[in-house]
Design goal:
CATH superfamily of the largest domain: Pseudouridine synthase I, catalytic domain, C-terminal subdomain
Number of strands: 10
CATH class of the largest domain: Alpha Beta
Mean pLDDT: 90
CATH architecture of the largest domain: 2-Layer Sandwich
CATH topology of the largest domain: Alpha-Beta Plaits
Length: about 280
């Protein structure tokens, strides 16, 4: 936003939320969403000064959580930034927490300025009521070593058509560069870590569903080689439940880390200064 734009700075807001009771990130008429709650609070803080919905670094689906989501809000003056930094954490519902607010230049955009995203999918071997909202309960008798080994083919640059919901496929936007694909097990469960420059719709959950089939002996350990080569959603496993998935972190140019985004394309962020808040 330059030239004659009335917006002079951007608030970068890092968020955590329990996605259980939301219909995803993106605002939808008549449904409770994370973006909708934030937009409503912002409009109350600076009436008439908010243009459009605050974009998020990752458009999480219904039931998906976040420990490091990022959204951005274009602002007209410093007073608006200070008002948001001071009051927004107290105005949001208890299942959304503001973790940090940064002052950025007018060209910053939470989604388009991001360079990488880290998702985690968490498993538990126990029926623990305190984990039921953010872990998927699985059988510890699965072939856990095979599941971990099956992640290896994900590393590198791929056409991820097979790992995307069919209805969301966009021509020319199916390539992803994955530089972390690691499944770590403990005595009580495990966590799948995936880091990439961008993710397609339901990509992590489709990977998890495919790995679970490996664990059950229904697929070979090298199945993802063939899945990726097929470029066909039907070649992969089922889509795993949303419950275990969390957007952990996004990275931006200059090494500043916050959540993760769809693409590294977009304008460079402006200079930033930091205001920390606790929700």
């Amino acid at each position: 936003m330059t030239g004659d734009s009335p917006f002079r700075l951007t608030a970068r807001i890092r968020l955590a939320y329990d996605g259980t009771d939301f219909h995803g990130w993106q605002a939808q008429p008549g449904l409770r969403t994370v973006q909708g709650e934030i937009h409503q609070a912002l409009r109350g803080l600076i009436p008439g000064a908010i243009e459009g919905l605050p974009p998020g670094a990752g458009r999480t689906d219904a039931g998906v959580h976040a420990r490091g989501q990022v959204c951005s809000v274009a602002l007209r003056d410093e007073e608006h930034f200070e008002r948001i930094a001071r009051a927004l954490p107290r105005l949001l519902p208890p299942d959304i927490a503001v973790q940090e607010i940064l002052r950025e230049g007018p060209d910053f955009h939470a989604r388009y300025c991001a360079t990488a995203r880290h998702y985690a999918y968490r498993f538990t071997f126990e029926r623990d009521p305190f984990l039921r909202r953010n872990h998927l309960e699985i059988d510890p008798q699965l072939d856990l070593e095979a599941m971990a080994a099956a992640c290896a083919p994900l590393l590198g640059e791929h056409d991820a058509t097979s790992l995307c919901r069919r209805s969301s496929l966009e021509e020319g936007r199916t390539r992803c560069v994955i530089d972390r694909a690691e499944l770590v097990w403990t005595e009580k469960g495990g966590t799948l870590h995936l880091r990439a420059d961008r993710f397609l719709h339901s990509m992590v959950r489709i990977i998890v569903g495919t790995l679970l089939e490996v664990g059950r002996g229904r697929r070979d350990v090298d199945t993802l080689v063939n899945v990726l080569a097929a470029r066909d959603r039907g070649a992969a496993g089922d889509t795993a439940p949303a419950v275990g998935l969390s957007l952990e972190e996004v990275e931006y140019r200059g090494g500043r880390r916050f959540a993760r985004s769809d693409s590294g394309a977009g304008p460079r962020p402006g200079a930033s200064s930091k205001t920390e808040t606790k929700g």
